[in-house]
């Protein structure tokens, strides 16, 4: 069986696949960002890559190498950009990178692109990259490219949330290095998780505004916003399977592909 990874194909095999199947090209986008003392800096990249491989296998798509750096981590959603290891891009760099990669895929014949974003702070820069790429392509006379942008965590069902958080869901912004990402890592990459290092702390509460410059002495000191103590590989498997199944189904629907 041929690889789902574009990077593992020859140019001829890639070209053939594009022309024959018009496959969905999946671009994972993450970050290099602290995720507490218990999980890896590449958490936001590892998870969409793993989901992307599952989706590619399900819908006969291809997965591209990820954008492994993201926009600057914000205190209320990612702990803040001051943590060692949180290695971020300026907004215009991320816009440019996204725009260039989209245009290159389209230039080689790709017409269906799934951008699988995992890092809260990336969103509007990806949208800007998409918008500018579509304008570029139009001016070059290349049309027909459709782009679907997904934040994988929006695909979790209420039933799964109830299983993963029996005591109630603390809310998305607090889910940084929390129960959900840690569970998915325990399922897919247990070698990278250190449950004995999960901080035992109450949710970090921020006021409903941002203050600049950021004061590193305020807000989370461990990097987590809510504890991941309740994370298990079983929860991770439920979440992961749901992400792959639901995003595959949504992608088929969005692009009008047969199941
Ligand atoms: Mn993040």
Explain what the structure shows.
The protein is α/β, with parallel strands linked by helices and 259 residues long. The protein has eight helices and four strands, in the order H-E-H-E-H-H-E-H-E-H-H-H. It has helices at 11-21, 43-59, 75-78, 91-107, 123-139, 158-164, 179-188, 233-255, and strands at 24-29, 62-63, 112-117, 146-151. The two termini are 20 Å apart. The mean pLDDT is 96. The structure holds manganese (II) ion.
Structure, briefly:
This protein is of the alpha/beta class. It has eight helices and four strands, in the order αβαβααβαβααα. Strands 2-1-3-4 form a four-stranded parallel beta sheet, sandwiched between helices.
Name the features.
single chain, about 260 residues, alpha/beta, 8 helices, 4 strands, about 10% strand, globular, binds manganese (II) ion
List strands and helices in order, with pairings.
Blueprint: H1 11-21, E1 24-29, H2 43-59, E2 62-63, H3 75-78, H4 91-107, E3 112-117, H5 123-139, E4 146-151, H6 158-164, H7 179-188, H8 233-255
Parallel strand pairs: 1-2, 1-3, 3-4
The protein binds manganese (II) ion.
Manganese (II) ion (MN) binds at residues 31, 33, 44, 78, 119-120.
Please give the count of helices.
8
- Mean residue pLDDT: 96
Shape: globular
Write the H/E string, N to C: HEHEHHEHEHHH
Low-confidence stretches: none
Number of separate strands: 4
Pairing-aware structural class of the strands and helices? alpha/beta
Q: Biggest sheet: strands side by side, in what order? A: 2-1-3-4
Q: What is the radius of gyration?
A: 19 Å
Q: What ions, cofactors and ligands are bound?
A: manganese (II) ion
């Amino acid at each position: 069986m041929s690889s789902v990874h574009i990077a593992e194909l020859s140019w001829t095999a890639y070209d053939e696949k594009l022309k024959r199947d018009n496959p969905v090209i999946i671009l994972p986008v993450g970050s290099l960002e602290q995720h507490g003392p218990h999980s890896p800096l590449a958490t936001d990249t590892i998870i969409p890559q793993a989901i992307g491989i599952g989706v590619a296998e399900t819908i006969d798509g291809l997965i591209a190498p990820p954008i492994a750096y993201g926009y600057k981590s914000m205190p209320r959603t990612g702990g803040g950009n001051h943590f060692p290891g949180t290695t971020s891009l300026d907004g215009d760099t991320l816009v440019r990178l996204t725009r260039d990669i989209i245009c290159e895929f389209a230039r080689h014949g790709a017409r269906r692109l799934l951008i699988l974003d995992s890092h809260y702070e990336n969103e509007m820069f990806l949208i800007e990259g998409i918008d500018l790429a579509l304008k570029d392509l139009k001016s070059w006379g290349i049309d027909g490219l459709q782009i679907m942008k997904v934040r994988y965590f929006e695909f979790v069902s209420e039933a799964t949330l109830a299983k993963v958080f029996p005591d109630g869901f603390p809310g998305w912004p607090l889910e940084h290095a929390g129960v959900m990402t840690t569970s998915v890592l325990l399922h897919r990459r247990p070698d990278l998780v250190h449950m004995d290092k999960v901080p035992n702390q109450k949710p970090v509460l921020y006021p409903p505004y941002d203050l600049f410059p950021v004061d590193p002495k305020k807000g989370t000191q461990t990097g987590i916003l809510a504890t991941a103590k309740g994370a298990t590989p079983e929860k991770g498997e439920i979440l992961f399977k749901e992400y792959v199944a639901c995003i595959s189904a949504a992608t088929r629907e969005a692009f009008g592909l047969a199941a």
